[in-house]
UniProtKB/TrEMBL annotation:
Recorded coiled-coil stretches: none
InterPro entries in UniProt: A/G_cyclase (IPR001054), Adenylyl/Guanylyl_Cyclase_3/4 (IPR050697), Nucleotide_cyclase (IPR029787)
Species assigned in the record: marine sediment metagenome
Domain Guanylate cyclase, residue spans: 20-80
Gene Ontology BP annotations: cyclic nucleotide biosynthetic process; intracellular signal transduction
Protein name: Guanylate cyclase domain-containing protein
Annotated Pfam families: Guanylate_cyc (PF00211)
PROSITE patterns, per database record: GUANYLATE_CYCLASE_2 (PS50125)
CDD domains: CHD (cd07302)
Length: 242
């Protein structure tokens, strides 16, 4: 979604941020309905960037569409890829336009591939008048397990899984967050797959997650991860194991 074309408003960055916050708030109703239907919760991350792009009818006479291309739209896509579920991240170019009316939880420098310097991303949790929108506090809640569960952790490279997995232990778990301890430090925002059963098992049990934070503990690292997908048997397996 883009703002400022075909009709240009002077406050397009603020409109974009307000829209993003409203979208996140709307997910509460979506997940309430999912819960009633026995479906897992859904989460999304939103990235916003401000800058010049090429916009218009793009294509040929046979097939064309009204769209947008350029570096700044690509950067917005990369910012979205750096989010956790429920987040709204904005770039400095957007922040400069809305800094007087937004509420920011924190700032995180991120280095994107092909970009020489880190870019500060602002974690927006609210916007003041005339929109008056605020996100609820994000709680990284997990239940400590009675005993750790041995798992295999794979780093994801796009949609492909790394060839070799890492031996790890699952120590905390909820339907949204999981904590895994592994000897190797894994960078925040790295997408991972956590396997509870071996490849030879026909009914493999696994989940996908994104690393949120990393804490060193003696000679190992504790990784708090936000779950992005889990197979139906994961919760049953974890409860049965513990």
């Amino acid at each position: 979604t883009f703002f400022g074309a075909p009709i240009k408003y002077g406050d397009s960055p603020a409109r974009a941020v307000a829209c993003a916050l409203a979208m996140q708030l709307a997910m509460e109703e979506v997940n309430s309905e999912n819960s009633e239907r026995g479906l897992p919760p859904l989460f999304m991350g939103i990235g916003i960037n401000t800058g010049e792009v090429i916009v218009g009818n793009i294509g040929s006479k046979e097939r064309a569409k009204y769209g947008v291309v350029g570096h700044n739209i690509n950067l917005a896509s990369r910012v979205e890829g750096a989010t956790l579920g429920g987040q709204v991240l904005i770039t400095p170019s957007t922040y400069e336009q809305v800094k007087d009316i937004v509420i920011v939880r924190g700032v995180r420098p991120v280095r994107f591939k092909g970009v020489e310097e880190d870019i500060d991303l602002y974690d927006v949790i609210g916007i003041k008048e005339p929109y008056n929108l605020a996100l609820p506090d994000r709680v990284e809640y997990t239940e400590p397990l009675k005993k750790p569960i041995p798992v295999i952790l794979h780093k994801m490279h796009g949609k492909k899984m790394g060839s070799s997995g890492l031996s790890a232990e699952l120590t905390h778990f909820s339907t949204q967050w999981a904590t895994v301890i592994v000897a190797e430090e894994i960078a925040p925002l790295q997408e991972v797959r956590i396997d509870f059963t071996g490849d030879e098992d026909e009914n493999r049990i696994y989940l996908y997650a994104k690393v949120a934070t990393v804490t060193r503990r003696a000679d190992r690292y504790s990784h708090s991860t936000q779950i992005t997908y889990l197979t139906p048997m994961v919760t049953e397996f974890v409860n049965g194991f513990s």
